Amino acid sequence: MFDYTFSCGDFKTHTNMTETGISFDPPVYEQRYCAAIQILEDSRWIHEIKKVTEFGCAEMRLFQLIRRIETIEHILQVDIDETTLKTHLCRTKPLISDFIRQRKCPLHVEILHGSVADSSEELRNTDAVIALELIEHVYDDVLTKIPTNIFGFMQPKIVVFSTPNSDYNIIFTRFNPLLPNGFRHLDHKFEWTREEFKTWCMGITEKYPNYMFSLLGVGEPPTGFESVGHVSQIALFVRKDMLGMPLVEPLKLDSPLEGESSYKSLHTVDFPFSVDNRTQEDKIWAEVEYELHRCTNDEDNYDTDKFAYKLSIDELLRRLEHMGATKEILDKLLEKNKKPVENGFVIIEEDDDSSNSNFNEDQSEVKEECSNVIASESEDWDT
Description:
Layout lengths: L13 E4 L4 E4 L2 H13 L10 E5 L7 H4 L7 E6 L2 H6 L8 H5 L6 E7 L14 E5 L7 H15 L3 E7 L4 H4 L21 H14 L3 E8 L13 E8 L24 E8 L8 H16 L6 E2 L4 E5 H8 L6 H10 L4 E2 L2 E5 L4 H29 L1
Parallel strand pairs: 3-4, 3-6, 4-5, 6-7
Antiparallel strand pairs: 1-2, 5-10, 7-9, 8-9, 11-12, 12-14, 13-14
Helix pairs in contact: 8-11
């Protein structure tokens, strides 16, 4: 085992227990999503995580968060329920905003119908596996095969499992009895205590010594019940090379498959992306033009004596600081583009519409692209 803390620190959550029930703010499912995203964005491996496979993706709610991590280039959404996948395929579709503000790297998404227990060619080269509230829904024969598929065949860099903590059930039963099967959900095949979950994790690392694990949780217990732990327990498995440790066994990422793949591809989509090949100075000047244009929209910047708008060089540098702009670079660009400077201010004369025209041209291109996207989506909705 190893100690792990979330990259953004402890969760700021609230658990409230009254005479009639218990509530969580934010909801526990949101806390699980937040935990998974924080783990994926850990600085120790974020640039190593290019391909993510989520098993038990169901309605693909977590996908909406994973896809926003710019360094991830390939996402697999896998579930055994084909009907649920087909019902929610639309959630993987790029939004209009994805065409306006395009990613800096490609993103390929695949929706696959299949079991977490089965190996498949599509799963190769997965860097991170996410399986939230999944294992308690499977029978023993499938549960036994899960480590073989994930840690034996896929061998990803990190793996995240979450599952209910049955120690917490003593709080729930204060208000309502558990379901007839003795669990929180009718489809649960088991619910583990923290010790049982730890034992399962230890069995995995004993069989696959290239991995270490850490136990976490979300859904705080109410005051006075701290001993029961979190409502949802999480195991984070990390391959030792991601922790700067040598691997115990060589990786076998090209191991042959046994039998035919039972996975079925239901849908694929590629998100729009753009590669910015401009020089740093080109990027800075584009921002300068934008700021000059924005300056002319505020009458407080107008100098009635000069019949021109004025923008402070110091203010311009402050706004461009995030781009690495310096006074030397800015002075050079202003001189190159023949922008007059007086007493520390850029003078924007009323007949100087060069920056405005460039800005408007860019806006026209965006509007045209948006119109094309909207028209395309309208056709889809009509059908």
